[in-house]
Amino acid sequence: MRELARLHPTRTADLFALRNAMVADPDAEVRRSAMARLDETGARQLSSYLRDAAHDPSMTVRESAFLALGRARDSSALSLAARAIRWDRSFRVRRAAVLFAVRACGGDALPLLAEACRDPFWRVRVTARRVAAAFDPTIDVRSVAHEPARDAIAEIDDPDPAVVTARLGRIHSRVEPRALVPYLGHAHQALRRIAVREIAARGDLETLRAVLDWLRDERVPYGPAAAEATLVRSGARASALATQILDGEEAPPHVVAWALDSVDVVPPWLRSSSLLHHGDARVRRAFARRAPEFAPDHRTLVEAMTFLLGQGDDHTKIWV
Predict the structure, then answer these.
(1) pLDDT of residue 148
(2) Rg of the chain over all Cα atoms, to the nearest angstrom
(3) Residue 26: how many CA atoms within 13 Å on its side-chain side?
(4) Which of 17, 206, 211, 234 counts the highest number of beta carbons within 10 A?
(5) pLDDT per residue over 173-200, tens digit each?
């Protein structure tokens, strides 16, 4: 770290040393610090390495990569920013991606800003609204921004989640289960518990279908676990929904994988075996887990497992 502090990106030899630290150092803090030392010129020269760093396992490195890409004005990285805003689990990375998008891409980033205004974490929403308004004062950010956990029910709305929980505890039987779905991702544990309990007890199939959206949103630390708990406690209704999905309903891969794991009635082999060739590894893994129940005979099962072993997916091979 002391050696990095002496490096200056205006000197060619030092720039190469910073590049080497970014790419090869096993310490994430060293990689992050090397990127932080890049000025605009240095960041432009090393922009290809910064784009690679946007996929780094360390969230601090990914955050620093987007900030450096912003200094480089590298508009070609806009797709990386979109991916981070939609899927990255770290709010710091998503916020850095928002700042990069505005600084490097200007007006082209406005649709992405509108999406960031609906981020589940308030720090990202506030940043997106602020930079959107600064870039174009005519934008009404209120028209594109909403707070998922506070739009549900006006009668119990309050900035204090403990107050919301207390009010909901008194009137929960009068509240439609569908209105409680946004609270599955709330940071307040007691509020999540009420939402899980009431949706599992009274939610219809369409409500449970809305719960499925939380399974893949890893930007919210609590959402996927709360959604899983809700679906497990829903029992026969969740199994009926899983059957509908496997009957050929169009669904994203994470939902198909959940349906395979959750269905009680074994689907016909000819229909379920088509999932052997599914493009998403999560679906193939779920199929591998349930195939012994689905297969009509031992020979068919062996043929299916042999096919999966040849797919080159290590996680699926473990299940096989």
Answers:
(1) 45
(2) 24
(3) 0
(4) 211
(5) 788 899 889 889 888 888 899 999 999 9
pLDDT of 79 > 60? The answer is: yes
| Type of residue numbered 200 | A
Give CA separation, 195 vs 67, 134, 169, 192, 232, in Å. Answer: 38, 37, 10, 5, 14
The answer to whether residues 195 and 207 touch, using CB atoms and an 8 Å cutoff, is no
169: CB partners within 8 A, 6+ apart: 194
Instruction: List, for residues 233-292, the tens digit of each pLDDT value.
Output: 999 999 999 988 888 767 888 888 898 888 887 677 656 667 777 777 788 888 888 878
Q: What fold characterizes domain 2-145?
A: Leucine-rich Repeat Variant (1.25.10)
- Distance, CA of 28 to CA of 38 (rounded, Å): 16
**Structural domain spans, the chain:** 2-145, 147-234, 247-320
How far, in Å, CA of 56 to CA of 207, rounded? 37
Whether 217 contacts 184, CB under 8 Å: no
Number of alpha carbons in the 13 Å side-chain half-sphere of residue 152: 25
CA-CA distance, 284 to 318, in Å (whole number)?
12
Go through the chain and tell me how many residues it has.
320
- The amino acid occupying position 38 is L
Q: Which of 72-94 are b and which e, b meaning 16 or more Cβ less than 10 Å from the residue's Cβ?
A: bbbbebbebbbebbeebebbbbb
Rounded to an integer, the average pLDDT of 217-222 is 78
